[in-house]
Amino acid sequence: MLEDILRECDGEENRPFLSRLKARILRSKPVRERIILCIYRLRVQKGKLELLILKIRKRDRELFCRCIDSQAMRDGGRATMYAEACHEVRTIFRIVFHCKLALEQVILRLETCLLYTSPSPRDRQ
Fold it and tell me: Does 1 score more than 60 pLDDT?
């Protein structure tokens, strides 16, 4: 398998640049199909991030409740430890949430591009 790939690469080096480029373009999927596939993959990743956000929120609530309980028991050292852990969890939450927002923006832009690309002949039937 690796030998086939190497042979194919060696064969491509001998061909002119434009013919190699043309071959790659012609054998690639239509732009509309590639956009749809990208949107699908990004939505899957967005779903994973949403699940992660739910887990992080649950962990934050647990740590915050433990911090409050420690304060009520007048255990300042433990309360400080839980407060710092809560701060770290919230920092991670902020990062994951911004990643989710960025994915949503990309999905929205790709969907907008999808509206303006012409459908393939297979879609018209």
Answer: no
